[in-house]
Amino acid sequence: MLIGGHVSPAGGLVKAFHRGVERDCDSIQIFNQSPRAWRLVNYRPDDVAEFRELIAAGPVRAIVLHAVYLINPASKDEVIRQKSLDALAHALQVGDQMGAHGVVVHPGSQAGEPLEESIDRVGDAIRHVLAESERCPLLLENTAGAGGTIGRSFEELARLIELGGGDSRIGICLDSCHMFAMGFEVRTTEELSATIDRYVEIVGAERLGCIHVNDSKAPFGSKRDRHAPLGDGEMGREACAAFYSEPRFEGLPVIFEGPGLEGRGAGLVDIKVARELREEGLRARGLG
């Protein structure tokens, strides 16, 4: 399990790598551009080359990119749709360059439109952006369910993969806070194991590419995406520990996004808590 956190890419990829090292991360996640702006960002070739050398040597061994929040491949608006396609294709191309583990994207929102039509548009978008890039996986993130967001259920995620052409590069990023807010039973090791059994049955174990472990400020089933520090929210330590010790997450980047205990993003203290939660979870499973 590659335990890590979301870090700032300010100053370039090499600096992001060292921020991960400072936080005792095995993996890091960054926004490949400002999360709330359309301006595309390219990294210098020397920065990319040095970063790839550092990743190959460790201790940070994987990077995940998170696409801009503005992206909505389900939109009927021609301007929004084109900007979404351009931004997502660019993120995958940047991921190709740096050898990223994947690009995480929220699949979009119906925006008042019928679900089937909206999902069809997302499928078209997935095929388009994969054709514009070469290697980097596209990781569809499950959503908390508010405001007509798409990807609320395992069935919707499986449908998106199908409509995207079933390409092997289409993967899934499961977010613990979103699952909890959507009403998935994940509060104990037994509940989480049963839920992941269902995920595997509907979507497939081979599609799982990344895990976000965030606690939730909002209550169970609230459909509100509000993160809390690990073990400090409505999910609590037992649920977070279950995610950090789930056997089917081994080998994957398992990212804490924040806010952390110090009121900012993921810090050293948060990664320390994540590792403690893993040990708690392993003991609860009789593996520690």
Describe the structure.
The protein has 288 residues and is an alpha/beta fold. The protein is built from nine helices and ten strands. The strands form two sheets. An eight-stranded parallel β-barrel has the order 1-2-3-4-5-6-7-10, surrounded by four helices. Strands 8-9 form a two-stranded antiparallel ribbon. Helix 4 packs across helix 5 and helix 8 packs across helix 9 (268-284). The longest helix has 21 residues, at 78-98. The mean pLDDT is 96.
The spatial strand order of the largest sheet comes to 1-2-3-4-5-6-7-10
Strand-residue proportion: 5-15%
Q: Please give the oligomerization state of what you see.
A: single chain
Distance between the termini: 15 Å
Helical proportion, percent range: 40-55%
Radius of gyration: 18 Å
The number of helical elements comes to 9
Report the major sheet. Answer: 8 strands, parallel, barrel
Q: What structural class do you assign from the helix and strand content?
A: alpha/beta
Cα shape: globular
Average pLDDT, to the nearest integer?
A: 96
Stretches where pLDDT is under 50 for at least 5 consecutive residues are: none
Summarize the helix and strand pattern as letters: EHEHEHEHEHEHHEEEHEH
Number of strands: 10
